[in-house]
Amino acid sequence: MPDKPKVFVTRIIPDAGLRLIRERCEADVWPDLNPPSRAELMSRAGQIDGIVSLLTDGMDAEFMDAAPRLRVISNYAVGYDNVDVPAATQRGIPVGHTPGVLTETTADFAFTLLMATARMVVQGMDYVRAGKWTTWGPLLLLGQDVHHAALGLVGLGRIGTEMAKRAKGFDMRVIYFDAFRQQDKEAELGIEFLPLEDVLRQADFVSLHTPLTPETHHLMNARTLALMKPTAILVNTSRGPVIDPDALYDALKSGAIGAAGLDVTEPEPLPADHKLLTLDNLVVAPHIASASVATRDAMAVLAAENLFAGLEGRALQATPNPTVKPRFS
Ligand code: DGY
């Protein structure tokens, strides 16, 4: 019997996928809560046939060059901005990711953040915990209405589309900007395409659903934040660096925008003493938009399947570099 392929799994992922990987591979699983250091990662590069990486692991050319046996990088995330995909393509290494299985769960959470921020759920909990709840208050924690408000989507991919559907259930007007206008979806969902600036000017809520690319890095900056209504709420479940954090701080502090709900931040993790956390018109979650039991299981199974496909020389189910032909050892 041929030796099992050697793989490095950079964190404990749900057993639904990890069990499969352990059955079919010789798996070295990083046991800590925090990611392996660069040195730990590099020390394994020379021996592995495959890797299951997380969004916290830099899969760059240096790592790939140190890994001559590497036949697949299976990223346990839909986003793959941690992977240098052109470098992988150049080296003939297929990259896997996990789209589709987390779409609705992530949209649920984006809408949760939107609601929680608009209606001051976290501030309410803090108020109760602090023992400040002495009576019913006519002016206590007045938020923004969600129903019938205008939702501006920046990005109309899978998750943005699901967000639009949720918003329609709240009778919202949905406007969107995307580099690719999608007229079929406009008709189907009853949503309107506008240039980015107009989306920002007209929306009561702006929700970001773009990948992180050089074009979207700090897309929300002092200039674009200034276009938003002073009451508007910014929601980000995409990637932290899509927003310039200094500009966001200034906009929230000065009242240039109303509030923000973030699942992703720059830097990430956000240190507890970060200036953004001194603001009371901000809700932050620790990058948990896809964190439901069922979705994380499904991501683990898909990451395992992408890994096996790469190791066995088959086409990956979900890959940003489909032109790479996987090679069998
Ligand atoms: C992703 O998949 O890219 C998320 O950020 C984590 O689920």
Q: In summary, what is this structure?
A:
The protein contains twelve helices and twelve strands.
Salient structural properties:
329 residues, alpha/beta, 7-stranded parallel beta sheet, 5-stranded parallel beta sheet, 12 strands
Q: What string gives the helices and strands in order? A: EHEHEHEHEHHEHEHEHEHEHEEH
Please give the alpha-carbon distance between the first and last residues.
Answer: 14 Å
Please give the largest β-sheet.
7 strands, parallel
Average of the residue pLDDT scores:
97
Bound molecules: (2R)-2,3-dihydroxypropanoic acid
Oligomer: single chain
With strands numbered from the N-terminus, the spatial order across the biggest sheet is: 8-7-6-9-10-11-12
Give the overall form.
Answer: globular
Helix content estimate: 25-40%
Rg on CA atoms, Å:
22 Å
* Number of continuous helical runs: 12
Layout of SSEs?
Blueprint lengths: L5 E4 L5 H10 L1 E4 L8 H8 L4 E4 L7 H5 L6 E4 L9 H6 L4 E2 L6 H16 L2 H9 L20 E5 L3 H12 L3 E5 L5 H7 L2 E2 L2 H7 L2 E4 L13 H6 L5 E4 L8 H10 L4 E4 L19 E3 L8 H19 L18
Parallel strand pairs: 1-2, 1-3, 3-4, 4-5, 6-7, 6-9, 7-8, 9-10, 10-11, 11-12
Helix pairs in contact: 1-12, 5-7
Bound molecules: (2R)-2,3-dihydroxypropanoic acid.
